Amino acid sequence: MEDATKPNNPRVSFTRMADGTREDYELLDRLEEEFAAGTADRVLTHLRELSGSLSGYQVDRLEHSLQSATRAYRDGADEEMVVAALLHDIDDLLAPHSHGKLAALLLRPYVTERTCWIVRHHGLFQYYYYAHHGGGDRNARDKYRNHPWYQDAVDFCHRWDQCAFDPDYDSLPLESFEPMVRRIFAREPFSLASREQA
Prior knowledge:
The chain is mainly alpha-helical. Helix content is about 50%, strand content about 0%. It has helices at about 20-35, 40-50, 60-75, 80-85, 100-105, 115-130, 150-160, 175-185. The longest helix has 18 residues, at about 115-130.
């Protein structure tokens, strides 16, 4: 067991948050800031875990992610949107039925509300391509038809997501996107208190 008194393993004095001191919370703020600095590394590690996931498609989720990001990059999308295309399905392993919402929450502190909204809703917008085959409403996205980012979500899905299952596509390797991911997650987080929910 680690020694809590060692300088490299500082701990707070409390066992109930109500008993914490100013020094305790200053320590936690510093440790959280240090931990947050490693977010890009953890995101990239989790993205690599998509390799071999979700069988049935002609490519795995990692290749789909790389293909989506490569298409966005080659289409001239800005770096934030390229990273969004790379990470839009990152939470398939943990939340297969709500992965867009979870991916949007991951990105939310570091990207614009527009990008966050597109990632959050991309699953619904993807219904257009397949829902009717199972008796679903392929036009479910139309409930957002008057939303200012409706067409952006349509374009995201049409140009970079629904077409990114091609085993013969020459996707860029993950290493090509790592600097972009690191730059996005190195941004000063937007104030969450002043933003709408993702």
